[in-house]
Specification:
Structural class: alpha+beta
Number of strands: 3
Shape: flat
Number of helices: 5
Radius of gyration: 28 Å
Oligomer: single chain
Order of helices and strands: HEEEHHHH
Largest sheet: 3 strands, antiparallel
Distance between the termini: 12 Å
């Protein structure tokens, strides 16, 4: 049965006379509808962000930090939060390029300083040790505790 917009009754308003199975089916259909709406809205939002980003970079005023801002010429209020401009904020962070660090360390004979020797856990060796009877199944289970997680997925047709 296809659902559009708000065809599905609000799942939080369960009738006291409604069978648990019917309430569950209604909630499941509502979940699928809301998820679909979120996915559609996310696509729209992503398109808007790409377009606004290009506009801000083309027409906006760039500050010393590399951010762009455009004055909207009026005040907008959304969810009780007023704003008069839109800003594409630039943030910077540095991450290490280990290949470059290794090249420079080799050139300057600093390899041991920049890449000190450290013990590293080898998960494959655990299974080798199990085969050699140097570890027990219980110890392996303790080393690799089971983690359980759940997620909703659409199943069936």
């Amino acid at each position: 049965m296809p659902f559009f917009g708000t065809d599905i009754p609000d799942a939080s308003r369960d009738s006291q006379n409604e069978a648990p199975e019917a309430a569950f089916r209604r909630k499941a259909a509502r979940w699928a509808l809301v998820r679909s709406q979120i996915e559609a809205q996310t696509r729209i939002l992503d398109d808007l962000k790409r377009s606004l980003s290009a506009n801000l970079q083309e027409f906006g005023i760039r500050d010393d930090n590399g951010s762009y801002i455009i004055d909207l010429g009026t005040t907008y209020e959304v969810s009780g939060k007023p704003f008069t401009a839109l800003k594409l904020e630039c943030s910077r962070q540095r991450t290490a390029d280990e290949d470059v660090a290794e090249r420079i360390a080799l050139e300057k004979n600093l390899l041991d300083r920049l890449f000190p020797h450290r013990r590293v856990f080898d998960p494959q060796e655990v299974h080798v040790l199990l085969q050699e009877d140097l570890l027990t199944e219980d110890e392996v289970d303790e080393i690799f505790p089971e983690e359980i997680s759940y997620r909703f997925v659409r199943a069936g047709k």
